[in-house]
Amino acid sequence: MEIRFSPxxxxxVAGLYDTLPTKSRAAFLNLSRKILKxxxxxxxxxxxxxxxxxxxxxxxLTLTSLFVLSSxxxxxxxxxxxxxxxLILGNxxxxxxxxxxxxxxxxxxxxxxxxxxGLIQDHPTEDFGTEGGAAQSWTSNSDKSVWTFKLREDGKWxxxxxxxxxxxxxxxxxxxxxxxxxxxxxxxxxxxxxxAYNTSQLGYILCGLDKNFPVSWEEIKAIDFGANDKxxxxxxxxxxxxxxxxxxxxxxxxxxxxxxxxxxxxxxxQAILDRLIAYHDDGKPDLWSKANVGVEATDSHTxxxxxxxxxxxxxxxxxxxxxxxxxxxxxxxxxxxxxxAYFTGWTDPGKLVSNGPFQLKSWIMNQKVEVTRxxxxxxxxxxxxxxxxxxxxxxxxxxxxxxxxxxxxxTGGLAAEVIDEFKLKHPEQLRQEPYIGTLFYRCNTQKENxxxxxxxxxxxxxxxxxxxxxxxxxxxxxxxxxSSITPPxxxxxxxxxxxxxxxxxxxxxxxxxxxxxxxxPTLKILIASRETARTMAEAVQAGFQEDLGxxxxxxxxxxxxxxxxxxxxxxxxxxxxxxxDYLDPLTFLELWTKGNSNNNTGWSNEQFEKLLVESGNTPDxxxxxxxxxxxxxxxxxxxxxxxxxxxxxxxxxHPAVKNYSPLQLDNHPYKQITLEPTPPVAKPN
Amino acid sequence: xxKTILSRAAQGLITLFILLTITFVxxxxxxxxxxxxERKLPDHVEQRLAERYALDKPITTQYFKYLExxxxxxxxxLMIKRERTVKEIVVQAxxxxxxxxxxxxxxxxxxxxxxxxxxxxxxxxxxDYSSLTVAMLGICLPSFVIGPLLAIFGGLSFKSLNxxxxxxxxxxxxxxxxxxxxxAAYIARLARGGMxxxxxxxxxxxxxxxxxxxxxxxxxxTLRGGLLPAVAFIGPAFAAxxxxxxxxxxxxxxxxxxxxxxxxANDREYFLIQGLVLFYGFLIIAANLLVDxxxxxxxxxxxxx
Lengths: 685, 305
Description:
The complex is a heterodimer. By secondary structure, chain A is α+β, with helices and mostly antiparallel strands. Chain A is built from 25 helices and 18 strands. The two termini of chain A are about 30 Å apart. Residues about 1-20 of chain A have low confidence and may be disordered. Chain B is mainly α. Helices cover about 75% and strands about 0% of the residues of chain B. Chain B has 13 helices and no strands. The model of chain B has no long low-confidence stretch (mean pLDDT about 90). Classes of the chains: A alpha+beta, B mainly alpha. Chains A and B meet through α1, α3, α16 and α22 of A and α2, α4, α6, α9 and α11 of B.
């Protein structure tokens, strides 16, 4: 552990005393004796005190004098950091790890973006801007389903080894490898066959993709390879892909113990089973080479990505950390040849090899992560900072105090209560910028028949009674009222949903059979006790009570219990939020497809899904956005969620930080940021 | 004497075992699992992870496997959400909490005992009333009030003190003062009570009559007996202090053990919770044993039992 002593600390004072010449020491002792005697004289009872008290007084005196002494000498962290050209960032939590394939949070992404660089990097001022990162140039085919990236010839890892397209291929292989169990693997499902490989769809990979297999995939795809929930047959309920070797062998012996669709002949069935059994007998080897996933290193510096369909926003996607390269040589070295091994320590300081503007310098748990300039970075000359220090500060109030005490440049967040203070005293240090996310309430539409929430009229009435303006103004400070799930983006303006309209809401309630709220059951709003969730729920509750005359209770649960209740559908209304992963409406709309594990409302709509699929086959950006708009309109019209507000990123920033422009994803490229301290001013209070 | 220690140690072991078993069951009864995240993990990923930590096995199998690892390999297990072992966490965080705990208990004793003794000696004078009032305030004001107040007044007015953080040489002062003050208040009240009790004894009156000076009566004749209640409190309080405080640690940004207790429960870090509870239990038992020994040293009447 690194311990830095301030210029005058008790320890250094003791050391100072030792270095004094004997004469001065005697003088010092004499002086202290005199002082003690004086105190004793002025306070006759002092000598009558127990010795412990005398010691205490002495200690108190010494400590006080030390504080006074040292207070004139210490510089604050920001001043030192400005001189050393290091940016200090508040970063909410201790990162779970620095392996891009084993984390999924914003906290980690902030650090990873300093260490690694994807094919395309974030633009410092434009949300949709694209600047070459590890790739110098890129092209796509006419329908945007095949993209070719030309990597920089001078791209290197921080240990000097050249960065090649093979590192990218390795990275995508690793994150999709089922053994890696990556929490964020779904981000790569845009690649052709990636999902099949990641979810081990054995039948499809071993039979469907193999050209030597006697029959085509079309003829056999009706077979229950995956789990079939509706089947009475236990084997079908599991699905061929997930059955054990013994079970497969049993089926092979008696083919009819499994339910087959009409079509495949006995030979075909046997051939399929033989393939699967052979795979199990082989000890379940990695299927990467057979899965034909759409990533190909055509030469050392050319990477070709084949996608599952037209993907106009691929450049936006590749800015996400799941699309970053990882150092093949280092991972295999520390993993002893195994890409998915745990506890290899490849991300430890001193071992972590990265390709971004910075490299890892130190990582002290719950204290800091520090990165320092990477001299091997291709654009090292244009990196302005010499380092970035990330402090994991979960408590917003502590963070604000540390900011006032000049201990960090930019806070990770800001408690609503502190906003007014800074608006008044230091408006130049307060920033409130749109952030790509939406706060909403889910309505549970999977309730038993006849429950009011299954009635769209009731849901619409509830939606019409939420005072979004008041809530954003008074509680959520800086957030903007939302009536759609997707926040407005440069190229996409979401459809307009419900505004506050109590008269219409009362009409709808009457129409639904609950005039003045008569006969309406008590609803519960499920919340997790985080930040402003409770105040917001109370505002909504009051609105329902006043405008519709219905009773609502607030059910507060601890975070994991809240998530569990929501997933299991044990709620009426549930507070929720969603932050977009990339700049495209799809990251918000995909949630509401049938079976999406974050849907949790029970809502699904065939037309909605059809529109999403169609948009996925549309290479034209305008047409595609129009389709997504239609889909969102459908979703909004059903009032499955009650949108409340679009997020705002509220934070404090030190005046020395320059080139830190508002960005919707809050992904600020670090290399353009500069520190330009102005002459010292009085400490803000 | 030796026998007593041995039997206490044996009792301690049994206590630890029961504690461990109860914790093991309780953490698994909590809703959710270590894999409950805001963005739900894909099912196949969750299954793969559960297999890795043997969480897909029946609870009894898990329990015996855990015991086996613990007893035979002295292995506290792995963290589930990050690539670290439970031991690593304890090894990293305990020294920090220990430093802070020692400083706080030092402050608590150095402030609490003299204040308590003086109030007892100066019973029913303004000194007594004012120190009692302050002690009462110290007990009533929770550390999440004292902490931020001290951070604002101490940290923002003294340049040498940081409002929060860990790493510079003076960073231990504010958190340990906060933690110390609350305990000093308790100790002061206990010390006062104990001293009052002893000071009203006949032998003390005799000593006064003999003309023994007051400081000698306190120091030589009454302090040992008067401090017994405070010492009994100090043991477990010490164990609690060196194992960290969540509130203090989040207010002052200290990388200690306290936050792990809370975060481990929130994150359903099964093995970490078990490891920490075990460790804390061990500390409490050890501290109580030490208190017993200290009381024997202070009270001769206990020596023959």
